[in-house]
Amino acid sequence: MNLRQILTNSLNVLMMLFGVFMSYKAWGLYTNCESPLVVVLSESMEPAFARGDILFLSNPKKPIEIGEICVFKIPGRDIPIVHRVIDRHDSPKAGKQVLLTKGDNNNVDDRGLYQELHRNRAMMWIEPKDVVGRVQGFLPYLGMFTIYMTDYPLLKGLLLAGVGLVVFLYE
């Protein structure tokens, strides 16, 4: 294989990767959601969602309703949480809404998690600004690939090496 073929194959792979990345970002703009796809990492939402399910998110401008499943982030934590809204309070004068969430498979609500939002004061609710997106649909178990790649870094390395080998040896 000559240098020209290697460079051509490398550029083709880079164009494919950039195309996927740009499509993901465009989908995020369309859904008004910074992360339009997330993978469920725990069993806290069973039986609604199992570990490894891929969730499709959007973030419509309408108020969040009780019963909706939301993905929210706690500042200082990298991993978002997928739980159901079980209570909400609206303040029409202030135009503010606060939410209480709970995992379907959990015994208690998420107030213990909210304490991490503000360590110096009791936090009983989250706000819509903490919500990354609302679940619109899901694909069961297809996210297990992502979980395996995170849990087993050697598997990730072998897969990347295999893909690289195929790209450079393909004629």
UniProtKB/TrEMBL annotation:
<dbReference type="InterPro" id="IPR001733">
    <property type="entry name" value="Peptidase_S26B"/>
</dbReference>
<dbReference type="InterPro" id="IPR015927">
    <property type="entry name" value="Peptidase_S24_S26A/B/C"/>
</dbReference>
<feature type="transmembrane region" description="Helical">
    <location>
        <begin position="154"/>
        <end position="170"/>
    </location>
</feature>
<comment type="subunit">
    <text>Component of the signal peptidase complex (SPC) composed of a catalytic subunit SEC11 and three accessory subunits SPC1, SPC2 and SPC3. The complex induces a local thinning of the ER membrane which is used to measure the length of the signal peptide (SP) h-region of protein substrates. This ensures the selectivity of the complex towards h-regions shorter than 18-20 amino acids. SPC associates with the translocon complex.</text>
</comment>
<feature type="transmembrane region" description="Helical">
    <location>
        <begin position="6"/>
        <end position="24"/>
    </location>
</feature>
<dbReference type="InterPro" id="IPR036286">
    <property type="entry name" value="LexA/Signal_pep-like_sf"/>
</dbReference>
<comment type="function">
    <text>Catalytic component of the signal peptidase complex (SPC) which catalyzes the cleavage of N-terminal signal sequences from nascent proteins as they are translocated into the lumen of the endoplasmic reticulum. Specifically cleaves N-terminal signal peptides that contain a hydrophobic alpha-helix (h-region) shorter than 18-20 amino acids.</text>
</comment>
<keyword id="KW-0378">Hydrolase</keyword>
<dbReference type="InterPro" id="IPR019533">
    <property type="entry name" value="Peptidase_S26"/>
</dbReference>
<dbReference type="InterPro" id="IPR019758">
    <property type="entry name" value="Pept_S26A_signal_pept_1_CS"/>
</dbReference>
<feature type="domain" description="Peptidase S24/S26A/S26B/S26C">
    <location>
        <begin position="36"/>
        <end position="88"/>
    </location>
</feature>
<keyword id="KW-0645">Protease</keyword>
<dbReference type="GO" id="GO:0006465">
    <property type="term" value="P:signal peptide processing"/>
</dbReference>
<dbReference type="InterPro" id="IPR019756">
    <property type="entry name" value="Pept_S26A_signal_pept_1_Ser-AS"/>
</dbReference>
<keyword id="KW-0812">Transmembrane</keyword>
<keyword id="KW-1133">Transmembrane helix</keyword>
<keyword id="KW-0735">Signal-anchor</keyword>
<keyword id="KW-0256">Endoplasmic reticulum</keyword>
<dbReference type="Pfam" id="PF00717">
    <property type="entry name" value="Peptidase_S24"/>
</dbReference>
<dbReference type="GO" id="GO:0004252">
    <property type="term" value="F:serine-type endopeptidase activity"/>
</dbReference>
<dbReference type="GO" id="GO:0009003">
    <property type="term" value="F:signal peptidase activity"/>
</dbReference>
<dbReference type="GO" id="GO:0005787">
    <property type="term" value="C:signal peptidase complex"/>
</dbReference>
<protein>
    <recommendedName>
        <fullName>Signal peptidase complex catalytic subunit SEC11</fullName>
        <ecNumber>3.4.21.89</ecNumber>
    </recommendedName>
</protein>
<comment type="similarity">
    <text>Belongs to the peptidase S26B family.</text>
</comment>
<keyword id="KW-0472">Membrane</keyword>
